[in-house]
Amino acid sequence: MRLIHLPLVVLGLAAWLPAERVRPPQPPVSVGSRPDLSGEKTPLRRYEFDHRQMGTLFRIVLYAADSGRAGQAAAAAFRRVDELNGILSDYQADSELNRLSATAGTGRVVPVSRDLWRVLDVSERAARQTGGAFDATVGPLVSLWRRAVRQQALPAAEALAKARQVVGYQYLQMNRQRQTVELRQPGMRLDVGGLGKGFAGGEALAVLRRTGIRSALVDGGGKIVAGAAPPGKRGWQVEVRLGTGNTVSLALAHASVSTSGDLYQHLELDGKRYSHVLDPRTGLGLTDQSRVAVVAPDGITADWLSTAVSVLGPEEGLRLVEKTPGAAVVFVRMAGEKTVRWESRRWRKWEVEE
Question: How do residues 111-131 score in pLDDT, each as one tens digit?
C-alpha cells in the first residue's frame, strides 16, 4: 500500500516569471508596506516559499516588488498557519482542539477561541446540511482507521460499533451567544481535518493581503486558495488530476479549489480498496473509487464541500454544491473500465479548455 497526498499540481507558474525561492526569514519580523515615493510603478516579481506544517507542505507563490517585502509577507503568513496548527491539531496533545475533546462527557461548557469557534461553527452547519455526511465528531473513527493503515487490517466490527456510538454532530452543543462548546458524550473526539487546511490557507492569504500582497496563491497540501491573478494573466493556472490520464486545468482568481477521493490515499485489503475518506454515518472508508474537485469562494468551503460530496455521491453531492453560492464541482467515478463524470452548472466557468 502506498500513501501519497499530492492531489493538486500548480502548473505554469514557473513559466511566467523567473522565481526566487526563499525560505521565510528567521527570526520573524514585523511586516509593513512602504510607500513608493518615486512616482513610478515598481515592476512585480514572482517569489516562492514553503513551510512544513499540519502534516504537509504549505507553499506560497506571490508577486512583490522585492525579495524583502516578499519574505516578510510570507513569514507572517506562515506564522499564522503555525498559530492555527496549535489550535486545530488533533496530533498535538496540548492543542485547543484536543483540550476541548478531553472534556467530553464531563458536563463542562467550554469557552473557545475565535478561530476554533469559526471552524466548529462551519463544521456543525455543514453536518446539519449534509445529514452527517460531514461531521467533525468523527475523531474516534479516524483513530481506528489510522490504526488500520498501520496494522494493514480492517477495524474490528465491535470497535467500529463502539466508536460510532460517540460520533454524531447532535452531541456537539454550541452556544452561539456565549461562544461556548460542550461535548455531551464520553469518549467523543473532534477532528477538523476535513476543513482545517482550507481554513489555514484562507487565513494565510488574508495575512498576505493585509501586507499589501494582492497576487498570491497558497497551497496547503493540495488545498489551494488563490488571490488576485498574476500580472497580465486571467488567473492562476492549476491542474487537477482526477485519475490516470484524466486531468482538468483551471484558471483561479479570488477562489479556492480542493480535491477529495481515493486517488492518493487508500488502503487495499483482500482485493478491496478503502479510501481515507470516511463516511461518519457508517464508520467505513469509501469504496466507490471516486474523485472530486470543488471550487468555492474560500478555502474552508471548498475543503469541507469536497469531502461531503465524496461521501454523498454524485447526485446528492451536486445538489448540495448547486445550493452553495459560488461553488462548482466535478465528480469522477470508475465504473469497471469506464470513467463516468458529473459536473455542476458553474464548473465550466473555471475550467480552461486545452
Answer: 999 999 999 999 999 999 999
Q: Which residue has the cell 470497535?
A: 159
Helix, coil or strand: residue 30: coil
- Give the cell for residue 9: 499540481
User: 96-183: what fold?
Assistant: T-fold (1.10.3980)
CA separation (Å) from 288 to 152, 263, 316, 317? 20, 11, 15, 14
> Which amino acid is located at 298 in the chain?
D
Domain ranges of the chain: 8-28+42-85+195-352, 96-183
C-alpha–C-alpha distance, residues 72 and 68, integer Å? 6
How confident is the model over 59-101, as pLDDT tens digits? 999 999 999 999 999 999 999 999 999 999 999 999 999 999 9
Provide the β-strand partners of residue 219: 59, 224
Residues ≥6 apart with Cβ < 8 Å to 206 = 80
Please answer whether residues 142 and 193 qualify as being in contact, where contact means their C-beta atoms are separated by less than 8 angstroms.
Answer: yes
Element (H, E) at 303: helix 299-312
Peptide bond into 186 cis (omega under 30): no
**85 closest CA partner among 124, 60, 56:** 56
CA distance 106 to 128: 24
Beta partners for residue 267, in sequence order: 274
DSSP at 265: B
42 CB neighbour count, 10 Å cutoff = 11
How far the first Cα of the chain sits from its last, in Å, is 34
Question: What is the three-class DSSP state of 246?
Answer: strand
CATH 3.30.390.50, applies to 8-28+42-85+195-352? no
pLDDT tens, residue by residue, 207-259:
999 999 999 999 999 899 999 999 999 999 999 988 767 889 999 999 999 99
In the chain, where does DSSP find H-type helix? 13-16, 67-88, 96-101, 114-130, 139-151, 157-164, 196-210, 299-312, 314-322
Looking up cell 446539519 gives 128
Question: Which pTM was predicted?
Answer: 0.87
